[in-house]
Amino acid sequence: MKKGFVWAGVLAVSMVASGVTAYTVTKAADKDSYTPAESFASNVGTHFTAYEEGGYPDLTYAAENAVKGVVNIVNTQEISSRAGYRGGYGDDGGFEQFFDLFGIPRGQYRQQPEQQPRPQERKSGGSGVIISPDGYIVTNHHVVDNASKLKVTLNDKRTFDAKVIGTDPTTEVALIKIDATDLPTIPIGNSDALRLGEWVLAIGSPYGLQNTITAGIVSAKGRSLQALPTQYSLESFIQTDAAVNPGNSGGALVNTKGELVGINTLIQSQTGSYIGYSFAVPTSIVKKVVVDLKEYGVVQRAMLGIGYNAIDEAFLESDKGKSTGIKEQGGIYVGEVYPGSAAEAAGIKTGDIITEINGVKIEGSAQVSEEIAKHRPNDKITVSVKRGSDVKQIEVVLRNKTGNTDVITKDQVSAYDALNGEFAEVSEKALKSLKIKGGAVVTGVHEGGLLDKAGIRRGSVITRINNSTISSVNDLNRITSAIESIEWINPDGTRDRLLIMPK
């Protein structure tokens, strides 16, 4: 993750046995890490504000109407402490040489003494936005992740239990549902139409405050921060200077007409509190994710299948950029076309410069991600490609990450996602030392996920899932059947196998 960013604000509380602590702000572990901060009807009326004396817009209409559609969310997680090895920050538990072998920084793992299991309950909080009268609510993935129970409190102080319809860690968007009718909603606006300098409101419902409203302007669009930890993360944030503080994750970013244009997600901070910049997922991404989650329970992610660089000043001054002979900024340079991809099938080649997608001018990497994210596998797009002195219009049929155009169901989530961790390729040095031909090294373990529950630690190497040999990280994406068995090599060199009994 990129340094100096935190989630837009998650309030957290822990309860051990019968003891309960007060709500406190969850802060970054250190200064170099991120930590968690439409109505579908199109005929909803809008209010065009007038400017008062002094040059400031009248934001009262937008504030008074939108605040009714913002809710507070409390996430209760049941934590099962298990005896034996537990990972944490500190010394490396005797695995220093193994971590060196994989190039993993030291000082991030320790062996803790065995402890007797005891019941624990942890609570965290955030905000959400009602998008339909029958109880669909959009929020952030990290607000509802690993929830054992969700409690939603409306602006009128009514409370409801909620269920998760689906989440998408790659965009940080989640969809939940409460059993209610005739709820106030916020109409979804067009985030693509936002202009730099346009006034916006950030609205949240943190625990204990019912609602908060702050104002600011759009500072930038299409920001890619490398903040989301998952593979294939999609980042094209709206940047504003509207203050977003703890408990506002998942809240609404609205324009002066009271329309939802983004879901507040991140802030730039070294302390966990707002210091000037906040970032929201634009509705151009949110709308498609929500429709997919409602229909399939999982996002239908389209892939172009290329490796690329934005042609900017930094690229032109790099050795790679100079070797291309490109002199002008703009567009993206195709550095690699992945075998079996949509791009390869369409005839896009290494060295091509992509200047437009479906008529939208491409200035940087985030624009490519955002434009592709609006589509599903099997959708057709038109890509404008500059090849030498020629400009070609290439029609591309998009594919999913497994390389075909099939619909992915909730039961067909890839092994990469199902394991709930982060992975990297095994280095040549490690392959020789372990005497293996391939695998996927675990570089991160998400709490409460399958890796965590199985006791598979950071630094372990996944070598086999079900009946399939894992030779690379990409192999984890190709497996979409339910995981029945996992084989891996531990950081101390011992080998383990886990059999998972069907429910």
From TrEMBL:
PDZ domain segment(s): 313-389
Endpoints of the signal sequence: 1-22
SUPFAM superfamilies xrefs: PDZ domain-like, Trypsin-like serine proteases
Keywords: Hydrolase, Protease, Repeat, Serine protease, Signal
Coiled coil: none
InterPro entries to which the protein is assigned, alphabetical: PDZ, PDZ_sf, Pept_S1C_Do, Peptidase_S1_PA, Peptidase_S1C
Keyword Transferase on entry: no
Family in the record: Belongs to the peptidase S1C family.
Protein name: Do family serine endopeptidase
Organism: Alistipes hominis
